[in-house]
């Protein structure tokens, strides 16, 4: 036998109780032994375990194997594990092929006999393919020790501070006029009821003053190209019409602005703002923005300019234009958070119809010392409510809207109940489906509010109406609900209703997912690479997730995840280089027709065109081996290492 002839070892994994109960693994291993070039076959409980890998390494050394096939789980899970085992035994890691007999067979095939046949077919294909594998070498590419953080809520800030403290340069991009995100709207946080501003504002100041962090507020990422370690991002900075370097944040412009009746977005429409405004007193940066849609000069072309007239720093600039800034970064942390569910379509709850029906975010502002009532919980007419209803799961756990649980609503509803009882002494009634309080000190908080006299009614609310049963309740609202424990319908007169709205992905998440080439789940949350083993990484190298953009979560989990994302980034960039994929594309100049279709297809800008030779060429440093050029090439001149026509066709032919 020629020493370069293929000599293959085939290893069939039981994966504990995942594969073996459905697939006859011994039969599959026996079958593999009958295939051409196969010298060793074995089955084992857990091939990925240390003894499993040791078995492969020993066989390579003792039997002179030069190719390995493992039939087990998805390559996404353990291909790197087995490639490393091959490498440590002295053979090129690309002389390895995996057959996925778990996700593609045992988990999805009901009949045991069929599953075994299917597993044998996949093993046959893998053996045929690995025969044609070629040795490939990875390359080391220098990385930019710079991080782009998208979203300046608590997640983005935490990630930015952690990575900046480790010595990395950070660009923090926030689309609103100030950093802070949703937490900036809260007064108290569950379950400890500590003051949100006392935790939040110092963090905002740290971000603002950190020498390693540059903040771009009122800005969005509009383009990104490149690959792990070497991305180029374009940031569009919208015009504030106020020169940041000059503005002292004195606030005179806002005092003098005559346009005063614009509903405040930050206060959720409770209270007004001026056309030149800062969303809240502790905003970072403190430079206000002029709203071009409501400013008399910008929107109506009227003579005004009161802000400019009174600005001693001469900071107003009505001619300011948007600006595009290009930055080079090694890694990206996405921290774009969530938006609250809009309950307007649920007309039966009366939101937008009755002024005393509030969303939870509006209630946060009502209760906040910096809010429209300076923290007094009062109705629109200034009276203190005597009875308040809180309706859980609005938009969540509802097949017509979001089927998932938003995870924080039960807890913030109980926070509201405590605050209402404490500030007003009002009766509070919580209407819930199930109370979910799985967190540190959360169940204790639930017990506490029950002891404080809060009423809990298990049942979905059917309707909020202004039709009162008794004369004495005229002018109040009535909550109609079925108590599913007593099986009785109740009509409860109340003065105020709070809708505990669920969380949904932030607007623009879909566009951002396309821009960054990261995936989303069916509900629109960004998807992690692996739910258990890589919960903050994405399938795109160098791009990580932090906070609610990945799914609803409370502040402790958000902060933990943001720190984890920063940790991953630090680990990635610390070495100064990254190992790129060995599987890259090649264009055969003899076959290339010069049609240039591949140039526009390549999202990594890795293909250039040689006008003199009239052929396309691949820049090996930029190519990520995605295969798009190979798929579109009409002359079959482009091919990707490890996915050559020969390799793919041999695998298919063997299976079929
Ligand atoms: C009513 C209510 C009360 C709550 N109370 C509590 C509580 O008491 N305790 C607790 O632990 N949790 C609470 N939570 C949950 C808490 O709000 C979240 O855990 C936390 O805000 C998540 O932070 P984040 O940074 O991931 O997202 P966010 O706070 O949503 O911040 C995301 C930021 O990204 C920005 N952004 C979005 N898209 C882009 C883009 N494309 N480009 C640039 N910037 C972008 C947004 O403007 C925002 O500033 C509550 C939630 C609600 C709805």
Describe the structure.
- Helix content is 27%, strand content 23%.
- The chain is of the alpha/beta class and 656 residues long.
- The strands form 12 sheets. Strands 10-7-6-18-29 form a 5-stranded parallel sheet. A 5-stranded parallel sheet has the order 20-27-21-22-23. A 4-stranded parallel sheet has the order 2-1-3-4, with helices on both faces.
- α6 runs parallel beside α14.
- It is globular, with a radius of gyration of 31 Å.
- The structure holds flavin-adenine dinucleotide.
Secondary-structure topology with pairs:
Elements (H helix, E strand, L loop, with lengths): L7 E6 L11 H8 L5 E7 L5 H14 L3 E6 L2 H14 L7 E5 L1 H5 L5 H20 L8 E3 L3 E5 L3 H12 L3 E5 L14 E2 L4 E2 H14 L3 E4 L2 E9 L2 E8 L14 H5 L5 E2 L8 E2 L2 E2 L11 E2 L15 H5 L12 E7 L1 E4 L3 E3 L16 E3 H7 L20 E8 L14 H16 L2 E6 L9 H10 L3 E4 L2 E5 L11 E7 L4 E7 L1 E6 L1 E3 L3 H8 L26 E3 L9 H20 L2 E3 L5 E3 L9 H5 L5 E4 L4 E4 L9 H5 L5 E3 L4 H11 L1
Helix pairs in contact: 1-5, 2-3, 5-17, 6-7, 6-14, 11-12
Flavin-adenine dinucleotide binds next to helix 6, strand 19, helix 10, helix 11 and helix 14.
Name the descriptors:
Alpha-Beta Plaits; about 650 residues; five-stranded parallel sheet; single chain; 17 helices; FAD/NAD(P)-binding domain
Question: What is the CATH third-level topology name of the domain at 339-504?
Answer: FAD/NAD(P)-binding domain
- Whole-number radius of gyration? 31 Å
CATH class membership of the domain at 339-504: Alpha Beta
Bound molecules: flavin-adenine dinucleotide
């Amino acid at each position: 036998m020629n020493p370069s002839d293929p000599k293959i070892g085939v290893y069939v994994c039981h994966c504990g109780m995942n594969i073996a109960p459905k697939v006859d693994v011994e039969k599959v291993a026996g079958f593999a032994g009958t295939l051409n070039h196969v010298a060793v076959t074995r089955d084992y409980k857990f091939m990925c375990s240390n003894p499993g890998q040791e078995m492969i390494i020993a066989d390579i050394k003792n039997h002179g194997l030069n190719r390995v096939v493992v039939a087990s789980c998805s390559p996404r899970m353990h291909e790197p594990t087995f490639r490393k085992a091959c490498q440590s035994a002295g053979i090129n890691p690309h002389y390895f092929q995996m057959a996925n007999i778990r996700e593609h067979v045992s988990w999805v095939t009901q009949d045991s006999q069929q599953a075994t046949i299917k597993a044998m077919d996949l093993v046959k294909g893998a053996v045929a393919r690995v025969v044609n594998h070629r040795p490939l070498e990875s390359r080391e590419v220098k990385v930019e020790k710079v991080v782009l953080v998208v979203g300046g809520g608590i997640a983005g800030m935490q990630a930015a501070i952690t990575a900046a403290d480790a010595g990395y340069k950070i660009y923090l991009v926030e689309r609103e006029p100030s950093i802070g995100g949703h937490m900036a709207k809260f007064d108290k946080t569950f379950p400890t009821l500590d003051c949100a501003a006392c935790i939040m504002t110092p963090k905002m100041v740290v971000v603002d003053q950190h020498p390693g962090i540059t903040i771009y507020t009122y800005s969005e990422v509009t383009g990104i190209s490149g690959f792990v370690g070497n991305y180029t991002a374009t940031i569009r900075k919208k015009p504030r019409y106020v020169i940041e370097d000059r503005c002292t944040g004195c606030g005179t412009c806002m005092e003098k602005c005559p346009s005063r009746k614009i509903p405040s977005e930050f206060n959720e429409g409770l209270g007004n703002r001026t056309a030149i405004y800062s969303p809240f007193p502790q905003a970072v940066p403190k430079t206000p923005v002029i709203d071009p849609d409501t400013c008399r000069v910008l929107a109506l072309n009227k003579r005004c300019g009161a802000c400019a007239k009174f600005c001693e720093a001469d900071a107003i600039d009505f001619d300011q234009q948007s600006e595009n800034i290009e930055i080079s970064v090694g890694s990206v942390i996405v921290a774009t958070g969530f938006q609250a569910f809009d309950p307007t379509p649920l007309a039966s709850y009366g939101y937008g119809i009755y002024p005393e029906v509030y969303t939870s975010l509006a209630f946060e502002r009502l209760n906040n010392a910096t809010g429209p009532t300076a923290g007094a919980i009062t109705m629109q007419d200034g009276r203190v409510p005597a009875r308040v209803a809180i309706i859980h799961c609005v938009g969540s756990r509802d097949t017509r809207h979001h089927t998932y649980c938003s995870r924080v609503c039960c807890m913030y509803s109980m926070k509201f109940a405590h605050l209402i009882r404490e500030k007003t002494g009002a009766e509070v009634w919580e209407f819930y489906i199930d109370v979910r309080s799985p967190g540190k000190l959360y169940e204790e908080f639930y017990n506490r509010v029950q002891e404080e006299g809060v009423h809990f009614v298990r049942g979905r609310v059917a309707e909020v109406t202004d039709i009162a049963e008794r004369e004495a309740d005229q002018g109040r609202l009535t909550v109609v609900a079925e108590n599913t424990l007593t099986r009785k319908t109740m009509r409860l007169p109340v003065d105020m209703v709070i809708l505990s709205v669920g969380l949904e992905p932030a607007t623009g998440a879909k566009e951002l997912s396309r821009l960054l080439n990261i995936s989303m789940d069916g509900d629109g949350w960004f998807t992690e690479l692996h739910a258990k083993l890589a919960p903050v990484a994405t399938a795109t190298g160098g791009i990580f997730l932090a906070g609610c953009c990945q799914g609803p979560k409370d502040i402790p989990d958000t902060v933990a995840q943001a720190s984890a994302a920063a940790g991953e980034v630090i680990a990635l960039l610390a070495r100064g280089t990254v190992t790129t994929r060995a599987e890259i594309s090649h264009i055969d100049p003899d076959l290339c027709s010069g049609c240039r279709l591949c140039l526009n297809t390549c999202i990594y800008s890795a293909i250039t065109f040689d006008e003199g030779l009239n052929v396309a060429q691949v820049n090996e440093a930029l190519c990520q081996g995605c295969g798009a050029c190979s798929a579109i090439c009409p002359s079959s001149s482009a091919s990707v290492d490890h996915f050559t026509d020969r390799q793919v066709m041999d695998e298919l032919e063997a299976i079929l």
